[in-house]
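Review form for a predicted model. The reviewer records the input and the model, then writes brief findings.
Reviewer: anonymous (R2)
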Amino acid sequence: MAATSISLVREQSEAVGPTRALWVPFALGRPLGTASDPEFQRSVLRAAFDLLRTQTEPGIVDFPHDAPDTEFVEQWSCPLNLARPVGDALSDRLWAEAGQLLPWAAETRRRRGRSFFGASGAALDQQREVVQALAAIAETATILDAPDVGVEWAFDMPLLIRHLTDDARTIYHEALASQPGTQPPTHDDLNDWIFDSTVLGEAILTIADHLTAAATDLPFLTFIRGFLVPEGRYRGQSSF
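Model under review:
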């Protein structure tokens, strides 16, 4: 069966590898661009369906236009006011930060009735363990042995690192979804927040450095690194 799709998060589509995907540069939750312009929405749908005719091999195609109201929307700013974590150990600072977000993430789950958390194999009541595991990898540079924090992981290392990172980011994204604000963040907004303003971003980049160092002997580790850090955000070089 021929299939086509619309993607708001390029990294996820690259990881899944859909038969055909149209990547659109719109805010999360707005795959057709804007609610007030039906003709523009139809142009997005036409572009997605055109892939059935033009895309003969699996791949992702960029939609060439921004939403009509993009230039008139005020710039997004994170409504979360995170207290600066105190302490030297990355594990302590990361948990102090994540601990502030868990109640907000729980509120989003209550309202939506679902969560994207759990890619690593951890249950919803094991969010602390996921944060502990990610911090342990960052602090010890142990990238081939799974952290022993009492969770039955769904993947082996080092692929598990990618899914631990996904789960940690889910906590942050779902917490943000419970915050007030009239302007939804774009994909770039979320990445700016994570990698410029949070301890989680520091931990992810630290793990990426460990993968880079070990890739001299195990080149496939650069592939894992590419799943952790969005393109253009890793030390002035390609994430992959």
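Findings: The helical segments are 10-16, 38-54, 90-112, 127-140, 159-176, 187-197, 199-214, 221-228.
Further findings: Strands lie at 6-7, 20-23, 59-62.
Recommendation: see findings above.
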